[in-house]
Amino acid sequence: MNIQEVILCKYGELVLKGANRSSFESMLVKELRRRASPYGVFRIYYRQSTIYIEPQNDACDMQGMYDTARKVFGIVGVTRAAVCDKTMDSITETVRAYLPDKLAGARTFKVEAKRSDKQFPLKSPEISRQIGGLILSLMRGIRVDVHDPDVTVTVEVRDEHAYVRAGQENGAGGLPLRSAGRGLLLLSGGIDSPVAGCMMAKRGLEIEALHFESFPYTSERAREKVMTLAQEMCEFCGRIHVHVISLTHIQEMLRDSCEEDYFTLLLRICMMRLAERCAAQFGCDCLVTGESLGQVASQTLAAIRVTDSATSLPVFRPCIGLDKEEIVGQARHYGTFETSILPFEDCCTVFTPRHPKTKPQLGAVMAELAKVDIDALLDEAYATMETVTLRVYENYRG
Ligand code: ATP
Ligand code: MG
Fold first, then answer.
1. Are residues 141 and 200 in the same domain?
2. Cα of 172 from ligand 1 centre, angstroms
3. Using a 6 Å cutoff on CB, does residue 347 contact ligand 1?
4. Mind listing the pLDDT tens digit of every residue in the chain (398 residues)?
5. Are residues 32 and 119 in the same domain?
6. Residue 121 belongs to a domain
């Protein structure tokens, strides 16, 4: 029997969004279409709270398409399904041909039938009972467990066709990319900031990135590492413009003119001011950082207050309440962890003070900053900006 397979994507939270719903649905469809082209020609559309991804020929890479669909924010579940006609004969024949492979190794299963076409002659419990009986007769040793099955088989009778599938994997969750506006991520080479960027992208933010380097104190390879991280983030974020600004001269001036204990805080104020300018230039309405409360001296509450005073934009810090282990878990999930732990220096680790202030007073910090001509230094730093654009694949048009 020739089985026609499709990919079905389910979305969750979106369903609650009332009038926005159809615009969110079309955002998801557009994103899936943008993602699809490396994997072949697919027809992609939504109907009845489900997105259908139908391969148009045998050359389509279903696994590739499936994997990329799992990285599209806004989708909560992804599954492959076999399409059949809306008759019990066709459903039965499809179950025979399609399911034994999918159930191999499972000890228990249950069948869930969903019938959105109320004209279908059998009711859902009856469909479940018949298909359950059929599976028991096809597969040796498998049992029904309606409470905690290894695999849930679903038979859905919809408007045009019926669909048979086994199991469903989680999608990336959250809200569609770009549905919440644009934010500027301060991207270092560490573990935390790539995670922060992905977490905010998950809430619908389009991510633009800003990286500070301090060449020659930081190396060419440190910059490459950040580009690798941004490239990895593109798996979820689609496309990222990475802006790079040199802090070398600012750092040297702060080192030569200001008290060492304030050094990190002064640098952070400079970063925020430059980030604010960059955000204005590129239409970003918030900043995103990877800070986590109390993790290091510059992330105490008092230090964060000083940092926040340097910008009027909202600063999102999605890692603020996470432990390092939890952040590492997220970094593995988003695929950035292995790159993040490569040992290259960051501009924050150049000239680090021996005794950084953990309870800084804003007045004292600003008095230190007044020792240099900060406006001129920031202008000069901003002028060093270079931009690189990275995409999930070369011709992705986000
Ligand atoms: P990360 O793991 O993200 O580097 P961290 O724990 O090392 O964070 P810090 O070095 O204090 O913490 O940096 C705090 C935040 O400041 C980072 O999460 C990032 O958002 C931003 N940041 C730090 N260094 C840079 C940099 N070189 N370029 C851009 N942003 C930076
Ligand atoms: Mg860091």
1. no
2. 25
3. yes
4. 789 999 999 997 666 667 788 889 999 999 999 999 999 999 999 988 899 999 999 999 999 999 999 999 999 999 999 999 999 999 999 999 999 999 999 999 999 999 988 899 999 999 999 999 999 999 989 999 999 999 999 999 998 999 999 999 999 999 999 999 999 999 999 999 999 999 999 999 999 999 999 999 999 999 999 999 999 999 999 999 999 999 999 999 999 999 999 999 999 999 999 999 999 999 999 999 999 998 888 889 999 999 999 999 999 999 999 999 999 999 999 999 999 999 887 777 777 888 888 888 999 999 999 999 999 999 999 999 999 999 999 999 88
5. yes
6. yes
Q: CB within 8 A of 394, min separation 6: which ones?
A: none
Ligand nearest to the CA of 319: 1
Cα 73 to middle of ligand 2, angstroms: 26
- What is the domain range of residue 382? 182-391
Give the nearest ligand 1 atom to 290 CA: 18
Give the residue whose CA is nearest to atom 23 of ligand 1: 188
Q: Is the CB of 211 under 6 A from ligand 1?
A: yes
Pick the residue whose CA is nearest to atom 26 on ligand 1.
188
Q: Is the CB of 348 under 6 A from ligand 1?
A: yes
Please indicate, yes or no, if residue 175 is contained in any of the structural domains.
Answer: no
Q: For ligand 1, say whether the CB of 186 is within 6 Å of any of its atoms.
A: yes
